[in-house]
Predict the structure.
Amino acid sequence: MKKLIVLASLLVCGVTLSAQEKGYLTGSLESNDYSYVNDEKSGALAGDDRFGSNNYLKLDYYNGKFTAGMQIEGYLPGSVGYPSELTGINLSNIYATWMDEDFSVTAGTFYEQFGSGLLFRSWEERALGLNNAVTGARFTYNYRDVVAFKAMWGLPRFGMGVFTNNTSRPNTITNTETQVRGADLSFALSNLLNWDNTYLALEGSVLNRYEPISSDLIDEGGKPNSLGYSGRVNFESNGFFAKAEYVSAGKKYFQNPDMNAENWYLQKNGNAQLLEFGYNGRGLGLTVTGRRLEWMNSQIISGNVSTSNLMNYVPAMCTQYTYMLTTFHPYSPQTGLVQQNFINSGEMGGQIDAFYNFRRGTALGGKRGMRVHANFSTYYAIAKDGTFQAGNLLFRDFSFDIEKQWNKKFKTILLYSMQQYNDSYGASPEYMTQNIIVADMLYKWTSTFSTKLELQYLQTKQDKKDWMAALLEVNFAPHWSIFGSDMYNHGSTKVHYYNAGVSYNKSRTRVALGYGRYKQGFICSGGVCRTIPAYTGANLTITTSF
Amino acid sequence: MRTFLLSLAILVSATAFAQVPSVIVENAKGEAVNTKTLLDEGTPMIVSFWSTTCKPCILELDAVYDALPDWKEEADFRVVAVATDDSRMLAKAKSFSEGRGWAEDFVLLFDKNKDFMRAMNVSVVPHVFVIDGKGKIVYSHTSYTPGSELELLEAIKKCSK
């Protein structure tokens, strides 16, 4: 750790010397602290530590075309359900970038995404404990607004990052031998030909992933290098848009669950097809998405089951809900599953999403307008490897919501969602169905004092039967907010999941303190979900930036 | 650790005000846009980081959208809404903006791998900045409670003086 502090100090001193040119320093600090108690009602256990603390300090220095920065993370220890490989304090990111008019060079840690991320994405999602930043080098080049080119090489992060001293924590997986090399090219044909009102771009990426493999796998024809690529078309004209992407994610190896088989390993080819089109204009926003995935789980360490062991981005393409009762069974896409009695290569399906704004002064819009939204999403397992043949239903959701500002003070949102969810990953045709309704009401008593009330109900004949929930939030703008909520399972367990808290904001700082009982479930962010066990306790969150 | 904190203190004392960094994001058509070009017009702007799953963000941008005709009578400025939705929600964020009427009055930017968000050191959304005509950040606020938007107008009016 001392070495890291000296390294960080050198970086800060270095940029201080050049600060005479009037650069500037910005940064952010985030601390999420938890204190746990045992709770017989929910079955939550406080654990040995009874405490969890996730902390992040990020600093960036800008001076003209030069930027340098770093991030230090501390898990003292990590919160309940967080990936176990995140432990201790460590320098996780350090980088320097030169960004000129038409090119940039980065040395150190960086985040990158090719296309939609199906082939490759490195990003950070603190809510999930996910950070697969690459440490290495990157070069970008732009020719006018016609060509954008990126090339990179590096080591993707797993655990506490590439700057970890392995000997100090011998029992922790801190880093990998996996390397990635890749390039991405975007060619905007419409800009070259000076087309008016129409944008057309042809894009492509290539990615090489290296990971040492066992001699058994080499004997069966496996290779440490796998090559993936993607081809994309982006089109937009007068509000109409279309996007198509084909991805070949290269060879994937799985241990053969059949112990009597001749081969120790199964070899599969990752591939995906994505099509998105629609229209945005005249108050209407319409998107249609279709996607098929097969063996698209690209990992940093093959076979490791941690949720942060990802090298590409395969999100659930459906509505991501935020109301309490709508989030019990979020959909996680199936990217290939090898089990003793069930092998599923992936999924196929799609969604239709429509937003419409009834303008002010129209019959339905009234004096203040009205906004409506509907979504239909449906996904199926792939019945047979390499085909477009649909198997069992995995997930289906139909929802609509209506938002209406009745007068200057009162606003309502009404939401209905019907969700069908198969918890066998498609092995069995059975699924559960739940109907959820939500009424969300906001009332502004004065220009700075408002209250928000949410009433929710979930009806189902399966699982733990019916639930109800309520939330009341009292806001004193611009600094204070207080809330209390309760979810009650009156259909089966009769357990209350209460939660109350207060938050204070001033300028760039937010402090929130809460206490509550949380059920076992999922935390989802950006379409990726992590399971969390039940826990009861207090939490303190501090975020600030400067 | 003491050396590090000392170096940090010296650095902070020697630096200028934070400004808009140069980052590539997308516009509504999907074209690459450098955030530095936001300064070309030389007028103050409200830059709001939001996402389709963040309810307070949507409330804040709606409040600004509703107040915009009155505010524009008091000062000349632009509203830049930066969607931090990733590629999963990118198309949805565009349709969503259209369905709320924002597309007509706001400059819409899409930061699908959160590069701009990271460069501005935004940890959580909503996070809003007021930036003067020369690119200097003169006000910023995280979180939103109904009524907080009035502080934005005050900051914009100070920029215009």
Remarks:
- DSSP finds six helices and seven strands in chain B.
- Strands of chain B lie at 24-26, 32-34, 45-50, 78-83, 107-110, 127-131, 137-142.
